[in-house]
């Protein structure tokens, strides 16, 4: 009986220690996410002219009228050499849109990083995309060259999210066709998943979480054309028009 009590006590201590460690990791990741909310986004007008800056937090808060500040953003769609598309599930620790499936990488150029404000040939956005692919997916910087990123188009979308946190982005779309190393940051990414072209719609329907609103727009309006023309993306480029979508 004494041995049983001792064993149960040891088991209880082990469970308690594991729980404390898990809570510590969770709290650390939440603190990292809060720190990222202090980064400074680039505010723009509907013509993509820079009009100022705001913290990531203030750039995603929904006001009393359902509005969110329009800011510059980026999305990368990574296809490997087999033509498979890499999706990721956003970490449960994300303040905005946690646990949703979305494209490979989606983020923002930062106002306080001067080189990410460069506009010629989308240099600032490309540098931001390279930085975020490294930070979120763990892809080594030496595996991503700026010229590897094919710029396709821009679009504006507005989504009031959960009424507290939302999105209003002027987003640049990039295709990256390359086999790269992946070591995902758990503060950013909960899961990575490659999707094949021939199984795409079946696999999307089988996902056990919703899609992000921005990925939904691309899925419904552009992705099939991009995927079918990976060998000739010039056909998919539109650098003049800024499309607009209002989700909510």
From TrEMBL:
UniProt KW keywords: Cholesterol biosynthesis, Cholesterol metabolism, Coiled coil, Isomerase, Isoprene biosynthesis, Lipid biosynthesis, Lipid metabolism, Magnesium, Metal-binding, Steroid biosynthesis, Steroid metabolism, Sterol biosynthesis, Sterol metabolism
UniProt-recorded name of the protein: isopentenyl-diphosphate Delta-isomerase
Ranges in a coiled coil: 1-28
GO BP terms: cholesterol biosynthetic process; dimethylallyl diphosphate biosynthetic process; isopentenyl diphosphate biosynthetic process
Function: Catalyzes the 1,3-allylic rearrangement of the homoallylic substrate isopentenyl (IPP) to its highly electrophilic allylic isomer, dimethylallyl diphosphate (DMAPP).
GO molecular function: isopentenyl-diphosphate delta-isomerase activity; metal ion binding
Listed EC numbers: 5.3.3.2
